[in-house]
Design goal:
Layout (H helix, E strand, L loop, with lengths): L7 E6 L8 H14 L3 E6 L11 H4 L4 H15 L3 E4 L9 H18 L5 E4 L9 H8 L5 H8 E4 L5
Parallel strand pairs: 1-2, 1-3, 3-4
Antiparallel strand pairs: 4-5
Helix pairs in contact: 3-4, 5-6
């Protein structure tokens, strides 16, 4: 249970934005509400901020930004009651792709050791900015909130 005894959902995103990230946080809050969580926290796979995920190809070419994120991720996981994988379905390219793969493997191993429930939207860890695209395609004509609820998939156990 989280520190304040309210059920806390941890959303694992890609990296910090250069903007407030309000739309992303609102979408995560909606998912938390649909799953019965009253508190939301966010942690990132990669610690360096960028304007777009594609910038991680360059920023993430060395291991430092990935390793720096692990302490925050570990603390966030240990303070959560559930985890939403929302770091995106596409890995970066170049050397960053290898670090990303290592980070995802570490993350899944760390989560699996806690036995926390884990969710994603649809068939992958898609970022909240892509949820509406997914729900529109998979549940046409269904209001976003209802389509998102239908699209939240619990993993048993955390898939590699």
């Amino acid at each position: 249970m989280s520190d304040n005894d309210l059920p806390c959902l941890l959303a694992v995103l890609t990296n910090p934005p250069l903007t407030p990230g309000t739309r992303t946080v609102r979408r995560v809050e909606l998912a938390a509400d649909l799953l019965g969580f009253t508190e939301v926290r966010v942690a990132n796979l990669f610690s360096l901020p960028s304007a777009a995920a594609g910038e991680i190809d360059v920023l993430g070419a060395t291991v430092e930004g990935w390793l720096m994120a692990r302490d925050l991720l570990n603390t966030a996981i240990n303070g959560a009651d559930g985890v939403l994988l929302a770091y995106g379905a596409t890995a970066p390219s170049g050397a960053a792709r290898l670090h990303h793969g290592d980070q995802v493997a570490w993350l899944k191993q760390t989560i699996a050791a806690t036995a926390l429930p884990v969710w994603r939207v649809g068939d992958g860890p898609r970022h909240p900015s892509r949820w509406q695209r997914w729900t529109y395609r998979t549940h046409p004509g269904v209001p976003f909130r209802d389509a998102l609820q239908r699209s939240l998939v619990q993993l048993h156990p955390v898939a590699p």
